[in-house]
Write a structure and sequence with these properties.
The complex is a heterodimer of chains A (242) and B (245). With 242 residues, chain A is mostly helical. Helix content of chain A is 75%, strand content 2%. In chain A, strand 1 and strand 2 form a beta hairpin. Chain B has 11 helices and no strands. Classes of the chains: A mainly alpha (242), B mainly alpha (245). Chains A and B meet through helix 4, helix 7 and helix 9 of A and helix 6, helix 9 and helix 10 of B.
């Protein structure tokens, strides 16, 4: 197999500076013969698209997996399904999924987002199941004795106690979706991965700029969800974990 | 004078540095095909090299990742206050999407297998470290007290009592790490590190048959290594079989 894009092997450390310049102002690429590419507007455009795909896919995954996981956990049924699915799903190669979507289903946000959602379903389902199932049965019995409906038990007792685990699953799902959205340009959705996948348009600086932006976006999402988790966790539970 | 063939072998054919391959007239005649058995039968042996390359990325990555995470876990087991910062640090590594990670390392380590191994090893740290710590923390204090009462030194307690009892958690972490590493290693094709991703990318992007075969090999490989680890767990924790029976 032939190696390489010209010059990438000899990238100096200073190329990080080039990448940051690329993010903020359009640069002449080493591969497009003087045409300026990249820049702040393009970066923001791709960033927003990346965020959009991620959030749409995460929303679909939540709608499908969260109620199901909570209900299965409440009933204590379907452990094989919830836990087994999440273990098996880890073996699926994302590249194959995205490539097959493009060929067999079609390109564009409407096709890619539901498929990315599939990657988010197993961790949400697994953690919702485990989180609810681990709630002390005595607590649930007490709630039932107080006359709460099954629905109310899930919403007002089990879910609040299970929040750290449930949110852990949502965070894994968000990161998995966001990471895979990086190769979404292969299926016609121009995310930040466009800088990476189309390296013959954006050049070396774009390659590195894309990597930096994707990494920062992932850390930002993970950080926001961690904050959200802190806010959602009841104060009583926070004391317990210290 | 360089022949066209040599130029092609040196890459840069249409800006695409992956092997071109002819797909076979039969399959090209029907573009919407899902799986082309005729092509699969004739070309199954072309998946041998990528499979070997895949293992050459995954196995060193797992071994390095395990060695590093295990050493860090033992350190953090002795020096307790290291646990939160190490968990946070490995968590950050785990959060960075693998593709971004590949290209962030590119200026430092270049294209090829080394970069892929470093990234995948970094990925395994979090899960192996966390599970090892979890396993060690779950060992009941009474068991350690009993060992101390029998005259065990701290080192003997660690190696002969705590670690054996933590094996199920450690292997559980290792299994997750192995399975996800095998899947993620397909992306190594983006940094010219080879592996089964080569059969899903480049000229194969529009060819479902090759993508499906390569994807199936990835899943089978994950299943096989996962089963081996499960077997190791059974063999190293005989007391669990007794109590389960």
């Amino acid at each position: 197999m032939a190696k390489g894009v010209p010059g990438v092997n000899s990238l100096p450390f200073a190329s990080f500076i080039g990448a940051f310049e690329f993010i903020f102002s359009p640069q002449e690429s080493n591969v497009t013969g003087g045409k300026k590419v990249g820049g702040f507007d393009k970066s923001v455009e791709l960033l927003i698209k990346h965020l959009e795909v991620t959030l749409v896919a995460l929303a679909i995954a939540l709608v499908v997996a969260l109620p199901l996981g909570l209900w299965l956990g409440h009933r204590g049924k379907g452990e094989q399904f919830a836990v087994g699915l999440s273990n098996a799903a880890r073996a699926i190669p994302e590249l194959a999924v995205i490539a097959l979507v493009a060929v067999l289903i079609g390109v564009g946000l409407g096709n890619v987002a539901p498929v990315l959602a599939i990657l988010g379903i197993p961790p949400i389902l697994n953690n919702a199941y485990v989180g609810v199932q681990q709630v002390d049965r005595a607590t649930v019995d007490a709630a039932r004795g107080m006359g709460m409906s099954e629905m109310a038990i899930v919403r007002k007792v089990e879910l609040p106690i299970a929040i750290p685990t449930v949110m852990g699953g949502i965070r894994s799902a968000a990161i998995a979706i966001l990471a895979t959205a990086t190769i979404a340009p292969l299926a016609g959705v121009e995310t930040l991965g466009d800088f990476i996948i189309n390296r013959n348009v954006y050049g070396e600086n774009g390659l590195l700029a894309g990597a930096i932006l994707v990494a920062l976006l992932a850390l930002a999402i993970e950080g926001s969800l961690a904050l959200l988790q802190r806010r959602l966790t009841s104060d009583g539970l926070k004391l317990k974990t210290v | 004078m360089a022949s066209p063939l040599l130029l092609a072998a040196a890459g840069e054919v249409g800006g695409d540095f992956f092997r071109e391959r002819d797909v076979g007239d039969l399959c090209q005649a029907q573009p919407g095909h899902l799986f082309c058995w005729d092509w699969a039968k004739e070309n199954i042996d072309r998946f041998g090299t990528p499979t070997v390359q895949h293992l050459q990325i995954v196995i060193p990555a797992i071994l390095i990742g395990f060695a590093a995470a295990f050493a860090l876990a033992l350190l953090a087991h002795r020096i307790r206050w290291l646990q939160p910062p190490l968990l946070a640090a490995t968590g950050i590594l785990y959060t960075i999407p693998s593709i971004a990670f590949f290209f962030l390392l590119l200026p430092l380590t270049g294209l090829g297998r080394d970069t892929a191994i470093i990234v995948l090893a970094a990925y395994t740290l979090q899960i192996i470290f966390r599970n090892t710590i979890l396993g060690l923390n779950n060992v009941p204090a009474s068991v350690k007290d009993a060992a101390r009462g029998m005259g065990f030194t701290s080192r003997q307690i660690l190696w002969k009592v705590e670690l054996p009892l933590a094996v199920p958690e450690i292997i559980a972490g290792l299994r997750v790490a192995v399975v996800s590493t095998i899947a993620i290693a397909t992306l190594a094709v983006l940094i010219s590190a080879g592996g089964l991703g080569t059969e899903m990318y480049g000229s194969n992007l529009n060819f479902p048959t090759a993508i499906i075969i390569a994807g199936a090999i990835v899943i089978l490989m994950a299943f096989a290594l996962d089963s081996i680890l499960l077997l190791i767990q059974r063999l190293t924790t005989p007391w669990r079989r007794v109590s389960q029976a």
